[in-house]
């Protein structure tokens, strides 16, 4: 079984942003959330592992400010795109 | 639910290559196969969709010679790497 561990990083961040987001105009439905996750992942380099070593990589990423900044930038851009063109 | 539809394209191609491969020195165990798939996907642009529109994209890719050449190149490189450094 192979998995892109970047998914865990993006989903964790989007969950946090979803809960903290106070923008009344931002739709929080599941469809918009999945669109943000998909768009973000298409902007970020995939990180597939064929073993659960990916869990170690995930922990390292959360501690890497530059990489987390890249992830946050991708998610912020995706949120802007989804907000301006909601498809639900 | 979001999914990287590039996974279907790579897995389909690796399955074909696994069956047709006559290289006695090439290990065909599941671990080596997953390593080839993971390595290939890390070399290719992700194509996440948050809907099953991804299935339409997959059909388009199989008909796109340039894109399939890119996928084949990534898989061939991954097979070389795995053959030279088996981890099972």
Automatic annotation (TrEMBL), chains A, B:
Top-level taxonomic group: Bacteria
Pfam families assigned to the protein according to its UniProt record, in alphabetical order: ComFB
Name the UniProt record assigns to this protein: Late competence development protein ComFB
Organism: Clostridium cylindrosporum DSM 605
């Amino acid at each position: 079984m192979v998995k892109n561990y970047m998914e865990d990083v993006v989903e964790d961040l989007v969950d946090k942003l979803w809960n903290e987001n106070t923008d009344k105009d931002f739709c929080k439905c599941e469809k918009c959330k999945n669109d943000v996750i998909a768009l973000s992942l298409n902007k970020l380099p995939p990180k597939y592992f064929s073993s659960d070593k990916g869990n170690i990589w995930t922990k390292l990423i959360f501690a890497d400010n530059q990489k987390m900044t890249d992830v946050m930038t991708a998610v912020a851009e995706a949120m802007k795109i989804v907000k301006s063109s909601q498809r639900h």
